[in-house]
Design goal:
By secondary structure, the chain is α/β, with parallel strands linked by helices. Helices cover 38% and strands 15% of the residues. It has eleven helices and eight strands. Strands 1, 2, 3, 4, 5, 6, 7 and 8 form an eight-stranded mixed sheet that branches. Strand 3 and strand 4 form a beta hairpin. Helix 5 crosses helix 6. The model has no long low-confidence stretch (mean pLDDT 95).
């Protein structure tokens, strides 16, 4: 089985619609794909309606968290999307995205970069607006050559010239909420240093005690030594290890199935989850 447990549609900051994403996942030879848009479950219905036969969908979300001033992301799998506490927290995070993005546009304008809010809205479409949409606007204007180049301290990276903080969930609270909604919690790309500061391993150990289920090890932002170090850490802490593409369509260079999750780990995730079940494809629309 080929299993990719971290992808994004245009319900957040990907470029594929949910229907396109699942069709592309099947075309890439995947057996299982997780839809993990940022702080939203809005893409579920369209993905399920289009799910090709032979492909299984894992519903999920990537929750925005912050620990001791360090931004981090928590992948939540197979939770009940209507559970009130987690739903309220997702809405709080999502609602803060618009004023935050507007402030970043204003800071760019103060630097004589002619980004407009209308341009960012057009790029975001119906998705949850975020820094990748502003980065795409900078690419359109020729300010930077790629989305990745926009995520530096010159521009959008944490602590950068135009960075603006947003509401982010304490990761210990995120784990509590995910578990309360019957889900499984996996720390996304925990050592992706090129994105900014990363949490120390001692914090990962504390999260494990609090109920963290796993860490994402095989990821494009982790080099081989980092992956081996994280694998050893996970073994020491009794954590599951996952692998995934973090696919965003054409917005990033990663491709579906670039990294995958071991079927035994996938099986354990499905066994632990009580909030939802994987959805098998029946042919799609």
């Amino acid at each position: 089985m080929r299993i990719d447990l971290h992808t994004h549609s245009n319900a957040s900051d990907g470029t594929d619609s949910p229907a396109e994403l699942v069709r592309n996942a099947a075309a890439a030879g995947l057996d299982v794909v997780a839809l993990t848009d940022h702080d939203t479950t809005r893409g579920y219905a369209d993905a399920i309606a289009a799910l090709p036969e032979g492909l299984t969908l894992v519903t999920g979300a990537e929750l925005s968290c912050r620990l001791d001033g360090i931004s981090m992301h928590m992948l939540a799998y197979l939770f009940d999307p209507e559970e009130p506490e987690l739903l309220a927290e997702r809405e709080l995070v999502r609602d803060d995205r618009v004023p935050r993005a507007q402030q970043m546009v204003a800071r760019l304008n103060a630097l004589d970069v002619p980004v407009t809010w209308e341009q960012v809205q057009r790029i975001a479409g119906n998705g949850s607006v975020g820094r990748p949409h502003i980065a795409s606007a900078l690419v359109e204007l020729g300010v930077v050559a790629s989305v990745d180049e926009a995520f530096t301290t010159d521009w959008l990276a944490d602590g950068g010239r135009v960075f603006v903080e947003k509401h982010e969930t304490d990761p210990f609270e995120a784990i509590r909420l995910i578990k309360g909604a019957g889900g499984v919690a996996v720390f996304a790309h925990p050592a992706a240093a090129k994105r900014g500061r990363t949490v120390p391993e001692s914090a990962i150990a504390e999260l494990a005690v609090a109920g963290l289920d796993g860490i994402e090890v095989d990821h494009m932002d982790h080099d081989r030594p980092t992956r081996e170090r994280l694998r050893g850490l996970a073994a020491d802490l009794g954590l599951l290890t996952t692998g995934s593409s973090d696919y965003h369509g054409s917005r990033k260079t990663c491709v579906l199935g670039e990294y995958t999750t071991d079927p035994e780990v996938y099986g354990e995730i499905t066994r632990r989850a009580t909030g939802a079940f994987p959805v098998p494809g029946t042919g799609g629309a």
